[in-house]
Specification:
- By secondary structure, this protein is mainly alpha-helical.
- 53% of the residues lie in helices and 4% in strands.
- It has 14 helices and six strands.
- A two-stranded antiparallel sheet has the order 1-4. The protein has a two-stranded antiparallel sheet with strand order 2-3. It has a two-stranded antiparallel ribbon with strand order 5-6.
- A hairpin with a 7-residue loop joins β2 and β3.
- α13 packs across α14.
Length: 334
């Protein structure tokens, strides 16, 4: 049953009890990350004058933004109200959640830029990103088998496996497009647009890049033999290999401009999925009931739970606090 999809449970993982030392390390790591985003000049970045963004025209909230409100609102009522019917809507609830979130935020972007957004100006690009996102996410569902299911779907067996697979493929189309909307929204804030654009210059030689590529390929090869020790590669290796591949064929990635000291794409794309991920984890958590000392109760087959070795403590929603660090490289991957 190694490739059983969806995974309904996960093997027991080695635990790491919270000690004073481990707790202190976690707090320090989180404080460093937060401090870096707020005060990058403490880490070698130059202060950048506050950007003066152009005055934008006043435009009304667009139709697709209201469509997004409706697409997001109806599933939220069903999920958070813990309704058991209509079953077809509950089975597919996350598809309108993902796309509703995207259309809602794109509507906000439209207003903040005076009439410019991806849906309005580049609808074909939005569709293309959605199509690419299907394979972009499903490869993680595949790699998840090799780390003994770091996440699983306890209610996934409530629908046939082939229906769940179809749902997962179609649903994953909405996981990535929103990232580019969030990135553009971040650029509408003058304190953020150029904040990380004058940092230390850093570049790797070709042999260093080739060495990294070899290490990540080897890491992915042996990850199934050491799933508890190497599970972090699940989030880093695909992103790094994509970036290396783009570099080799001369295409842009969020790493490209670091050689000139511009870390803006790197840090802002990292931040996008952390913002989105917290929202998704919140929606997911409250779509189930959590009776004390009893199994959770949910009516959606897509409800997910984590089983992560060593760091499975101090949860925010279902996610261990340290698990949110995985959203940073995933934003770059997207």
């Amino acid at each position: 049953d190694f490739f059983q999809y969806p995974p309904l449970s996960a093997p027991t993982k080695p635990a790491s009890p919270v000690t004073l030392f481990r707790g202190s390390v976690v707090v320090i790591m989180l404080l460093i990350a937060i401090t870096f985003y707020i005060k990058p000049y403490w880490f070698g970045f130059k202060k950048v004058p506050k950007a003066v963004l152009p005055v934008v025209a006043n435009v009304k909230f667009p139709v697709w933004g209201w469509v997004g409100v409706f697409m997001l609102g109806i599933p939220l009522i069903l999920l958070w109200g813990h309704f058991s019917e209509p079953k077809v809507l509950l089975n597919w609830a996350w598809v309108p959640v993902f796309w509703g979130y995207t259309f809602l935020l794109d509507g906000i972007l439209f207003v903040r830029t005076g009439g410019k957004s991806i849906v309005n100006n580049s609808p074909k690009e939005m569709i293309a990103i959605g199509i690419a996102a299907m394979g972009g996410w499903m490869i993680f569902e595949y790699l998840n088998f090799f780390v003994d299911d770091n996440w699983f779907y306890p209610n996934g067996g409530s629908i046939p496996d082939d229906e769940f697979l179809l749902y997962a493929i179609i649903g994953s189309s909405g996981l990535i497009p929103v990232i580019f909307v969030i990135y553009r929204i971040l650029n509408t804030f003058p304190n953020i647009k150029y904040k990380y654009s004058q940092g230390p210059k850093f570049s790797l030689t070709n042999w260093q890049v080739n060495l990294l590529m070899a290490l990540f390929l080897v890491g992915l090869t042996i990850i199934s033999f050491l799933p508890d020790q190497l599970f972090g590669l699940l989030w880093i290796a695909p992103m790094a290999l994509l970036a290396i591949g783009l570099r080799k064929i001369g295409l842009w990635s969020p790493f490209t401009e670091i050689k000139n000291g511009n870390w803006s794409p790197f840090f802002k794309y990292s931040l996008t999925y952390l913002i989105y991920g917290v929202s998704l984890e919140c929606i997911n958590y409250f779509s189930a009931q959590h009776p004390a000392n009893e199994p959770l109760i949910t009516h959606t087959p897509a409800y997910w739970v984590y089983s992560i070795p060593y760091v499975n403590f101090w949860h925010l929603f279902e996610m261990p606090i340290l698990g949110f660090l995985g959203y940073l490289p995933f934003g770059l991957y997207c």
